[in-house]
């Protein structure tokens, strides 16, 4: 009897889906399309055994191309709720491979809110499986740390931090209390310098620092480590910094001090509503 009741309920759910959702997710009114996507996200999260499969996920994937930003936004937030739950990751693999390129392209969405949530979704994808995103995918997000729009830049800064700075070598456990150029932060500071130089936007160190300020404050305020890298002799087997790298580190260090003292974003970075030319 329990099985019959469950079958009956699932048949009713299926009838509602085919009779209502399949027609209304393409409704002429954007608000109705947005409600449909928001609800299917809830269904897939609450009842993943029945709804979290590609027969339903494809509707969210298709709707990521919607002309209205509010609808695209609902797609991304619905997906975030799914990717956040690591137990559901295996059921999302096919969807990820099929629609990943679209999500990456949405980081340049003309609507700032959509771009921010696309970056946050990719950060969750990155945490669920690092192999999914290619080097090119990551590069597309990295350069957004120099965006003039702060929420986009901060989201990109968190992605960059999770990808390049948050992993620690197990061997570092024994040197956590060391300071200066022997601290675990030394290699991370060098990584920051290398990234800054490779990005070839040398006049925008303040933008890079501001983008990572919220998620990497301890690293960016480790001035003792930065001083040591500039003033002390390299350790055995350690490559010394070149003049160009030292100049970049000094520029970054000055920007971190200014950020700590002034407590506001650099000039030219704001929170306007729309992204400029893509």
UniProtKB/TrEMBL annotation:
Transmembrane segments: none annotated. One of its GO terms (biological process) is sister chromatid cohesion. Signal peptide: none annotated. It comes from the Eukaryota. Residues 21-106 form the SCD domain. PROSITE patterns: SCD. Pfam families: HEAT_SCC3-SA, SCD. One of its GO terms (molecular function) is chromatin binding. Coiled coil: none annotated. One of its GO terms (cellular component) is chromatin. PANTHER family: COHESIN SUBUNIT SA-2, STROMAL ANTIGEN. Belongs to the SCC3 family. This is STAG2 protein. It comes from Asarcornis scutulata.
């Amino acid at each position: 009897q329990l099985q019959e009741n469950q079958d009956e309920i699932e048949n009713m759910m299926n009838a509602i889906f085919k009779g209502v959702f399949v027609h209304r997710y393409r409704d002429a009114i954007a608000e109705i399309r947005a409600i449909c996507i928001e609800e299917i996200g809830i269904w897939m999260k609450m009842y993943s055994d029945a709804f979290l499969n590609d027969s339903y996920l494809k509707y969210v994937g298709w709707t990521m191309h919607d002309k209205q930003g509010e609808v695209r936004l609902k797609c991304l937030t619905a997906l975030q709720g799914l990717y956040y739950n690591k137990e559901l990751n295996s059921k999302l693999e096919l969807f990820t491979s099929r629609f990943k390129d679209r999500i990456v392209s949405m980081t340049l969405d003309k609507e700032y809110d959509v771009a921010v949530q696309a970056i946050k979704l990719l950060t969750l994808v990155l945490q669920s499986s690092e192999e999914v995103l290619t080097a090119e995918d990551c590069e597309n997000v990295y350069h957004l740390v120099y965006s003039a729009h702060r929420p986009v830049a901060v989201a990109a800064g968190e992605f960059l931090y999770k990808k390049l700075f948050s992993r620690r070598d197990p061997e570092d456990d024994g040197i956590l209390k060391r300071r200066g150029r022997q601290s675990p932060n030394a290699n991370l500071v060098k990584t920051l310098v290398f990234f800054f130089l490779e990005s070839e936007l040398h006049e925008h160190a303040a933008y890079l620092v501001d983008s990572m300020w919220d998620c990497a404050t301890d690293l960016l305020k480790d001035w003792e480590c930065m001083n040591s890298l500039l003033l002390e002799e390299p350790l055995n087997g350690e490559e010394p910094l070149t003049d160009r790298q030292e100049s970049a580190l000094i520029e970054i260090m000055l920007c971190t001090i200014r950020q700590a003292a002034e407590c506001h974003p650099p000039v030219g970075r704001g929170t306007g509503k729309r992204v400029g030319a893509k």
